[in-house]
Amino acid sequence: MARVVVVGAGVGGLATAARLAATGHEVTVFERADTVGGKLGRHVHDTPAGPFHFDTGPSLLTLPDVFTDLFEATGAKLDEYLDLVPLDPIVRHVFPDGTTLDSCADPAGFAARIGAALGDRAAADWQRLWRRAARVWAASHRDVLRRPVGSPRDLATLAWRLGDLAAIAPGRTLRGLGRRHLADPRLRMLLDRYATYTGADPRRAPAALVAVPYAELAFGGWYLRGGLGTLADALLSRCLDLGVVVQTGAAVTRIDAAGGRVHGVRLDGVAAPVPADVVVANCDALTLYRDLLPSPRRLAGLTDRSLAGFVLLLGVTGSSGLPHHTVFFPADYDAEFDAVFGDPGRGVRARPAPDPAVFVTVADDPLVRPDGHEAWFVLVNAARHGTSAGAVDWRRPGLAEAYADRILDVLAARGVDVRDRLLFREIRTPADLDTATGAPGGAIHGTAGGLLRPANRGPVHGLWLVGGSGHPGGGLPMVTLSAEIVANEIGVA
């Protein structure tokens, strides 16, 4: 059995560590932060009324079977550690004209809701798109999500049937797919939003991302009682029970890889190297190939056009009546993407979007807020932190506070005014996410975009990449699947 070092205790790193330890490997996890979970962050704000608990990362769990498989592979049962609560609606969509549409995990039921809200033609259009999405999902799940993919040639040689290729529509964008199938502009908005799940602009994102709404709406959206952060607690518990050594506050500064294979890692402030036969990097691919194992050729394929997020954590008195998730769409969605991504080629700089889509999470969970109050997580798409034309310097004095005011004004204009019911507000900018998790520029889903992400197998023997910026992508189920791929590949290497 191998000596394994995992760099980073995000969900992908902890899941890989647990799987490897369950098969007998000697595993040590080094995490630069003082807590585990990575972007699955948590924050507590104490008030005289009581504590408010916030998930500062993901607020929705999808594809629960992925997590069932993970826990069973490590000798446990998911329901022994986590309390899953199904959501209906999964998301309430509030469109610019005031129309609302609640999504759910019943395809026929959702089509009926579309018909009631948007008309019979819109429902028929959605059902036609849904059939196509089902084919894309089946092909992706069978040939991509559970196996390593390291190059375009790997994708080209997968055993897709002609019907699958037609559904996947190579070369077409998600926006183009929406325009082709959906006549109602509100349904197009709904579809466009799923590109942002991967950190992408729907006008450039591949049409194959139609599999994302299929996965959410076919298999359901779930909340974890006590908050999504309880998933990090559960994974840490599994790791410790299996003998994994987890060290927080331990930053890896370099991977030793002389002679074309890994030999160990170097820790900040520690003179002696830590030996390892295998290193699993649960960090952004940019960090890996720029800092830990400099590889200029690997850096060339990484994008700097991935979304970040601007977040408000609000303590609100009283009850709003909002469901768990609500998205308030702007009148001009393209103006938001123009602002967030900019266009460096034409000299157009990224900037805070003045009228963005606003995503509000309000958990109906007494474990996360005092009686008579609500804990609001408010998210808007934002440019990554930086000083280039495609970024925003979120540390510029006064910017974050002014933009927070703007977001509250936007919510008020869309019918949800909480400005006179705030106990407190806290702000999290892309710069804060960069500092807290090492995500370059605060990129939520990693610096790698599109369908083809950096390969799980690194450029030297014994190096593996797991997590959101590697294959198969960002999001809780995807990084957990990346852990499965890596653990299986290490097992046969």
TrEMBL record:
<dbReference type="Pfam" id="PF01593">
    <property type="entry name" value="Amino_oxidase"/>
</dbReference>
<protein>
    <submittedName>
        <fullName>Phytoene desaturase family protein</fullName>
        <ecNumber>1.-.-.-</ecNumber>
    </submittedName>
</protein>
<comment type="similarity">
    <text>Belongs to the carotenoid/retinoid oxidoreductase family.</text>
</comment>
<dbReference type="InterPro" id="IPR014105">
    <property type="entry name" value="Carotenoid/retinoid_OxRdtase"/>
</dbReference>
<dbReference type="InterPro" id="IPR036188">
    <property type="entry name" value="FAD/NAD-bd_sf"/>
</dbReference>
<dbReference type="InterPro" id="IPR002937">
    <property type="entry name" value="Amino_oxidase"/>
</dbReference>
<keyword id="KW-0560">Oxidoreductase</keyword>
<feature type="domain" description="Amine oxidase">
    <location>
        <begin position="12"/>
        <end position="292"/>
    </location>
</feature>
<comment type="pathway">
    <text>Carotenoid biosynthesis.</text>
</comment>
<dbReference type="GO" id="GO:0016491">
    <property type="term" value="F:oxidoreductase activity"/>
</dbReference>
<keyword id="KW-0125">Carotenoid biosynthesis</keyword>
